[in-house]
Amino acid sequence: MRRFLRPGHDPVRERLKRDLFQFNKTVEHGFPHQPSALGYSPFLRLMAIGTRSGAIKLYGAPGVEFMGLHEENNTVMQIHFIPDQCQLVTLLDDNSLHLWSLKQHGGASELREEHRFTLKGPPGSPPSATQVTAVLPHSSREVLYLGTESGNIFVVELPSFRVLEDRTITPEAVLQRIPEDNCNRRSCELVEALREHPKNPDQILIGYSRALIVLWDLQNNKAIHHFLGSQQLENLYWQRDGSKFISCHYDGSYTQWPVSSDNRQSEPLENTVPYGPFPCKAISKIYWQTTKNGLPYIIFQGGMPRASYGDRHSISVIHGSQQTAFDFTSRVIDFFIIFSSDPAAEFDDPSALVVLAEEELVVIDLKSAGWPAVHPPYLASLHCSAITCSHHVSNIPLKLWERIISAGSKQNIHYSSMPWPIDGGTNIAPDPPQRDLLLTGHEDGTVRFWDASGVCLHLLYKLSTVKVFLTDADPNDNMNTLGEDEWPPLRKVGTFDPYSDDPRLGIQKIYLCKYSGYLAVAGTAGQVLVMELNDEDAEHVVDHAEADLLQDQEGYRWKGHEKLKTRDGPVRFEAGFQPFVLVQCQPPAVVTSLALHSEWKLVAFGTSHGFGLFDHQQKRLVFVKCTLHPSDQLALEGPLSRVKSLKKSLRQSFRRIRRSRVSSRKRRGGGGNASEVQEANAKFDQDALQEMELAPVQRKIEARSAEDSFTGFVRTLYFADTFLRDSSRHCPSLWAGTNGGTVYAFCLRVPPAERRMDEPVRAEQAKEIQLMHRAPVVGILVLDGRSTPLPEPLEVAHDLSKSPDMQGSHQLLVVSEEQFKVFTLPKVSSKLKLKLTALEGCRVRKVTVANFGSCKTDDYSENDLAVLTNLGDIQIISLPFLKLQIRYPCIRKEDVSGIASCVFTKYGQGFYLISPSEFERFSLSTKWLVEPRCIVDMPEVTSNNHVQNKSGTENAARKS
Amino acid sequence: EFRRFSLERSKPGKFEEFYGLLQHVHKIPNVDVLVGYTDIHGDLLPINNDDNYHKAVSTANPLLRIFIQRKEDADYSAFGTDTMTRKKNVLSNVLRPDNHKKKPHIVISMPQDFRPVSSIIDVDILPETHRRVRLYKYGTDKPLGFYIRDGSSVRVTPHGLEKVPGIFISRLVPGGLAQSTGLLAVNDEVLEVNGIEVSGKSLDQVTDMMIANSRNLIITVRPANQRNNVVRNSRTSGSSGQSTESSLPSSTPNILGSLQAEEESDEEDIIIEDSGEPQQIPKAAPASESIESLSQIELLHESTQNGFLPSSQMSLNHSAGSISMEYEAPEPGPKSLEEDGTIITL
């Protein structure tokens, strides 16, 4: 099938390239970094989240998501959906308002910014006059009421954002209509809240910061009622029938007020400090929800006793005698309640509480007893513990998929069974082409299994390696163990827990065999665990072996961390992946490479000192090879000495930042006059230039030598069944590549299956290749006689791959950070090379073989190398001729952690972290594209507008 | 003494084998000798490698006359054009070395007995303001020994003079290869690395490119000091006098005459088979298709040795310094005219 590839600009090849390759950033997975605002439309059943960088993201039913970005990149302060419209308004911290709308285009909805607007006061007025503090989109959908710091309420027409000046509600006008002596101009400073009357759209409730609350008649421009509280006002909420409302205050109290037509000045019905009597923190937002059984739900944020619980981030739910304060591990940004939005319904009947905390989204089921949490299908907090590595496995067999899901479901029993309540919009994307798993390793020693097949990155199963080891932390964390009479009734919710008990537990490398269910994970303290999937709980002893990678090298002392202590005796493991053997590298340096061959039952691991091979069937170490250069002290001493220099360089860079800040402040001090500014600029430039002259950034040009540090660092390990010794017999082999450009090849003798337990696995070094450019070897690959990469272990056995061509001659591809080289096998002679760094000055950071299918013809596909460079570019390089096909800029080159986190899939997609909590997904393929494609229809506005988008769960299969 | 023997013309073999054969025929197995032959023009030419050996065999008509001298009393000046006709007595000198003793002369070793550490190359195709320097790192223990930095230089553009970022040599390590050549100096602007322009590349990119090429590094610089430039078409300069205007680059200085001559030999990886002796990895006989694809990758590396000038030429250029004085530009104006390589002032 492989076409003969000719060099140069072959028009046929160029056309084919267009059918094969295409770069798209398709979707962001995970939880938005630094969220700052939350909005919800009961009408569309969509939720919106704004961030500090000016992004706005809309979520509905799983798969329904939209993203927009404000040009200004300013913090989004507030989000308000326009009632019964596919529109929303955002308020940024630069006081600008933006109107966004969802419009259908090409069969799918798109989020677009329509208008922007900044409220302007009369000339000479202070900025506070127009500083928007409260936004009320009126149910007429025609106007927006904007409460400001000055107490003025401006009325703005939609969608044009034209200010209707004659309708402005000024504090003066309000005061005139209040026959009260104790109200003065200051009572009407700063509008805290604006609430429309639930039954009468001509009335709005205005809450001023200084506790004056006015019910305003929009038709007649007069105050119908006014209410005077004693404490600074935080927020307001109407009862459903409009006969009462509730206000919450700075001192941690809330007050119910009656609204009746007879008396004009009302006294509060009830005033409560829920967590009194000691001073409490403010209640910043409150909901009052009525139910059929008469007992209302009162749900509020904050209000904790200042002294003892002032640091808690809580939301309290009070329902009759039940009261729970949900305790979040990060700051609560905002929350909303999902309740019956049918205007004809008599009661609110709240079903769910949705809380946006700084690091996660938590949804509480208010219908089920005990108010359990709902497992979110998206917005997963990837960073509950910091991500230390990731591994992607494409095309998971259904059997393994189901077993992982079943193991995961046993972990999720404490979640509510409630269907996801935010279900607006319809996902019209085609079904994901295959089942993909993304595995993330975390600092706390866990591995999380994510369903990465579609747009929603969904947690399937969480594996913890901690149980194998003895750690200081008590595994029985006292979550949910509070006694009955504990006050306040705090209950921890959410999964975000950034504190690692022991950094040595961190997962560094993961390798999953999708056919056998064998999983190998390796960590920071030289631990390598081999696991097997078990559908039942089990209690067993984990076998333990040591691999001394220094062997007989003498006179070395490891100054790094100690190895982890193991737990003696049998350990109880829950259903899922259960470790059965632990190989501990000595010295316990971080494991830098890992490979598992499930057919031969072998696991290979490497550190900065060397590598080893372990037979996990016989539980026997086959061999170790020390790769350490005798003069490399740094690698021996462990990470300590490096840390020191890192600290130093950090300190220096901080100094540099401080210096540049000082000079930029100076520049700003130049002030109003333009020429002055210019002068200051010029001076600044000069200063900067001078600074550069004084301390130029220099780079040393020196050839790498064998004596450089960390040359022995094992970067890559690879199993291959190939011709290592002679061209007539192939045999299992293990290949290892080091930081110093050395490739070792070991010939393995694996006994046949029937004698697998009787005879030992033998290994013998067959080859050692030293690349003269000595750049780190980042990839090793064997191509078969048809120049196709060898299949994965068991792939052929499962009929998922053609068996490799063992007749023609095999080739070895060695990828270093600087060059790609093809050698012949078994006699190693160089055949081809691509000197990437010499030509372009970039270095290879990640490389994977990816299969690219043509979007035009179903039967054509080819294997190429997907390469990420240190400049953040992605290049596709053809196999086996090593020709650059195409290049796309993908990640900023300054984004070192983004580049380091990148993983490619087998079918030309990839993921990288854009923040600690978000993966950007990209696609290089025209064929395999996973991106949101969804429709948000305007539900019919009838008396019964509680239209359930049932179709949200059905996937309208579309022809791709 | 004379010996006569036959060789198969179609399969001459290697020089080493031939040399061994000579030693065997003359029964002088441990004596270092110098081998020469007379070509069709009657010149005495040396045989010291496979190439000139093959050339010599091919000129045999049908007889090839070969002269053998002991190395220690060899007369190097004997080789060259017109040697046989000009000095009729060469033959007698060779045959009767005792006569020759009267003529003491300084023994200068053959260039092939040395390893070059640096050279100026492509003088004929580069603007005079530029210098292309090759540093031979391989085999020497000396560090390359230099540092580069960011900086800015002034260019002539359609919009007038413009400051553009550039890469400069910032430091030479004493005793390093770079310093010992005398061809590179602090503040020289780096324009190309092994034929790839550095403009638009970051300091780190250029660093990586240089390190990637460190075993055979060719950098094109615009020396900060323009006094010692090679002057072309000037008889006194002694440099490649045959170079003409027509060979000058017309648009960019990015003409790669003789880059990567040693591309294939510069970095042969080493293989150790079965814990045996390390060996260089040979190049596989390329299949036709891979040649084609190679030509794409290594198009830049069309190898010709033409532009190669021995480093000894440098001293000539130095001596010509006073003559090229007139090209020195006191103010940056004319200098910058030469910078973009489109205008060449002579």
UniProtKB/TrEMBL annotation, chain A:
Annotated Basic residues bias: 659-669
Stated name of the protein: LLGL scribble cell polarity complex component 2
MF (Gene Ontology): GTPase activator activity; myosin II binding
Region ranges (Disordered): 659-679
Keyword field contains Transmembrane helix: no
Cell compartment(s), UniProt: Cytoplasm
UniProt keyword annotation of tRNA-binding present: no
Superkingdom of source: Eukaryota
WD repeat ranges, renumbered to this chain: 69-103, 433-451
Similarity remark: Belongs to the WD repeat L(2)GL family.
PROSITE patterns: WD_REPEATS_2 (PS50082)
Gene Ontology annotations for the cellular component aspect, listed alphabetically: cortical actin cytoskeleton; plasma membrane
Keywords carried by this UniProt record: Cell cycle, Cell division, Cytoplasm, Exocytosis, Phosphoprotein, Repeat, WD repeat
Annotated ranges, domain Lethal giant larvae homologue: 272-372
InterPro entries: Lethal2_giant, LLGL2, WD40/YVTN_repeat-like_dom_sf, WD40_repeat_dom_sf, WD40_rpt
GO biological process, alphabetically ordered: cell division; cortical actin cytoskeleton organization; establishment of spindle orientation; exocytosis; Golgi to plasma membrane transport; regulation of establishment or maintenance of cell polarity; regulation of Notch signaling pathway
Annotated function: Part of a complex with GPSM2/LGN, PRKCI/aPKC and PARD6B/Par-6, which may ensure the correct organization and orientation of bipolar spindles for normal cell division. This complex plays roles in the initial phase of the establishment of epithelial cell polarity.
Subunit structure: Interacts with GPSM2/LGN, PRKCI/aPKC and PARD6B/Par-6. The complex is enhanced during mitosis. Interacts with DCAF1.
TrEMBL record, chain B:
GO cellular component, one term: cell cortex
Domain PB1 residue range list: 1-71
Region (Disordered): 228-267, 302-346
Top-level taxon of the source organism: Eukaryota
SUPFAM superfamilies: CAD & PB1 domains, PDZ domain-like
Residue ranges, compositional bias (Polar residues): 304-322
Coiled coil region boundaries: none
Key word Cytoplasm present: yes
GO biological process: cell division; centrosome cycle; establishment or maintenance of cell polarity; regulation of cellular localization
Record key words, sorted: Cell cycle, Cell division, Cell junction, Cell membrane, Cytoplasm, Membrane, Tight junction
InterPro entries assigned: PAR6_homolog (IPR051741), PB1-like (IPR053793), PB1_dom (IPR000270), PB1_Par6 (IPR034868), PDZ (IPR001478), PDZ_sf (IPR036034)
Biased composition (Low complexity): 234-252
Assigned protein family: Belongs to the PAR6 family.
Protein name: PAR6B protein
Source species: Cettia cetti
